[in-house]
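[agent] plan:
  1. take the single chain provided in the ticket
  2. run structure prediction with default settings
  3. attach structure tokens to the ticket
  4. add a short note for the reviewer (M.T.)
[agent] executing step 1
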Amino acid sequence: MKKWIILDRDGTLIKEKDYLHDPDGAELTEGAAEGLRMLSKLGYRFVVLTNQSGIGRGYFTEDEMNAVHLRVDEMLACAGVRVEGWFHCPHKPSDGCSCRKPAAGLAVEAQRRLGFDAADIAFVMGDKESDVKLAEALGAPSVLLMTGYGASEYGRGVRGTLNCANIREAASVIARGEREGAGSAFCCNLEEHAAAVGAMRALADDIGESAAMIISALRGGGRFFVCGNGGSAADAQHIAAELSGRYLAEREPLDAAALSCNASALTAIGNDYGFDRIFARQLEAHGRAGDVLLAISTSGNSANVLEAVRSAKKLGIASIALTGSGGGALAKEADAALRVPSNHTPRIQEMHILIGHALCGIVEKALCR
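[agent] step 2 finished; step 3 output follows
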């Protein structure tokens, strides 16, 4: 029965700290304890496979490493979680050993000593391409986590079978897959949604700063533009409508427009200039210095949304990126970025409209006293 989960150590189970060898420095990653406890209740068992080249480099000893593992075991025990075994590769990358991930040597040793087969492996979880490739070598599904190096790996194109913010989110997705029936699926969606909402508190200051940018633009006579594709296009129209119509208060209309509404403009510009230009061209026609643009993309890499942000910069229009946790190229090019701490598209989109409503409420309250 597929109930074994192979875990990476640094950046996955515990926070990434270069060549960690002091047990007092060990910290569980966000959501690790909760996620593993959830999976443990579902009958999953855990084994850790970790590359520890610091031993081969002479930075620390195996005894020091084992002290770190003991400390992590103690922290997990407080959450009711047990790791069945710790297996490490002490070699440097140049040694050419058969145990350094993504080679399968550690996994083979773990199977031999703990009494399971490759067919029993449910998932391999980690934050690096080497973990994804290990899963491929074992014929198992992979979970790429955005903790540790995961976000940068995802940004350069690495993909797991599942791509999740942390172990807690991965556990929610796995739990959902185990449940049958529409009612259970709905309840699982609610659990994932609640977990995503709980993580949103980290964005409070960024949302306040983004709202201030929109307030400043509208108060100065500028316009508020919103753009996005697919579900994000619907969100763009929704947010713009709340401001040009009303959100909660009876007031004068605010100058907000979605760039996804004019079918003639979209098809004409797409036909004549290419799909990447459908938002940028409209912004160049209607935008002026002092305006503000909210650019929505779950991946942060939608080419036409990126082009809109680049045109905004040339025009002196401030831009706010609304993305998933990775942020993509969009978060780097925009003046401000709101990154939902999730990589699960439905949860990101749900949080986007939550953020949209929050922005509308803050803007309306500030401008319509």
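[agent] step 4 note for reviewer: The two ends are 62 Å apart (CA to CA).
[agent] ticket updated
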